Amino acid sequence: MKHPLRRGIVATAVVALGAGLLGAAPAAQAAPNSYAYSAARWLDDQLTDGVVHNEQYDFDDLGLTIDVFLALHDLETRTATQQRIVEALASKVDEYTTGGSFAPDDRYAGATGKLASAVQEAGQDATSFGGVNLVQRAEERVVTEGTSAGRASDLSEYGDFSNTIGQAWVVRALSTASSRPLIPCSRATPRAWRAKAVASTVGPCSAPGVPHCSSAMLTRNPPSAHCCFRRYSTVDAARLDDAVDSARTTPVSYTH
């Protein structure tokens, strides 16, 4: 990485110039221009063996590497470079999403969600990337009970440094994956969501022998079973709703 002070400016410029602002309708997006392609070429030049290497502190900045990939992907340019980035990331999954050799059992929510999102954008399987099921790991980081239900949190003996941006990456990754984990029928669910869930129980469950959720299962007291949804699962409905609410009330910070 040759110009660390400019990295955020250029990465943002590529996305803004080439793909329009996030959330804008496709018809309103401007076509990539020469400035955007020049920025893409500059970003390509910052890569070493498919990743951005921070020469100042001598480490591979994998979060920034993903930013470069997403910028090039949105511009639909330098596909060979995109492929090199994805291949490099596949060999560094644990290095980015866990504590690596220093704390291999740690799990970082934002990094997992961000990598899973990039993998999906690349058209690859996030449930089997570099030998890791990123979707499952992301699901495991979502709190299911208590006042923090829906929050994507880190698992680490050194503390929880998850944040709003990481929360958004987890929501994006899981909703894109149409994740369908099991949900305890004992979960207290809003009536409107309960109706959505019951109306969406068509198709196979994610686990053999597990029934679809029904209104009786969701309201039974005491509960006696687990069930699953075809679309509105703990991620697509309850967790997703809670995650969005959590993001709205969490101070914005950015570490990934």
Explain this structure to me?
- It is a single chain.
- The chain is mainly alpha-helical and 256 residues long.
- The chain contains 11 helices and 5 strands, in the order ααβββααααααβααβα.
- It has a 3-stranded antiparallel β-sheet.
- The radius of gyration is 20 Å and the shape is globular.
- Mean pLDDT is 74; it is low at 9-29, 180-209, 212-225 and 228-237.
List the total number of helices. 11
Largest sheet: 3 strands, antiparallel
Question: Which whole number gives the mean pLDDT?
Answer: 74
Q: β content, as a range?
A: 5-15%
Gyration radius (Cα, Å) is: 20 Å
CA(first)-CA(last) distance:
17 Å
The oligomerization state is single chain
Count all strands and give the number. 5
* Contiguous runs where pLDDT drops below 50 for at least 5 residues: 9-29, 180-209, 212-225, 228-237
Order of helices and strands: HHEEEHHHHHHEHHEH
Shape: globular
Structural class: mainly alpha
Identify the strand order in the major beta sheet.
Answer: 1-2-3
State the helical fraction.
Answer: 40-55%
Task: List key phrases describing it.
256 residues; mainly alpha; 3-stranded antiparallel beta sheet; 5% strand; globular
How do the helices and strands line up, and which of them pair or pack?
Blueprint: H1 7-19, H2 34-45, E1 47-48, E2 51-54, E3 59-61, H3 62-75, H4 79-90, H5 93-97, H6 109-121, H7 134-140, H8 164-176, E4 183-184, H9 191-199, H10 215-219, E5 226-227, H11 234-249
Antiparallel strand pairs: 1-2, 2-3, 4-5
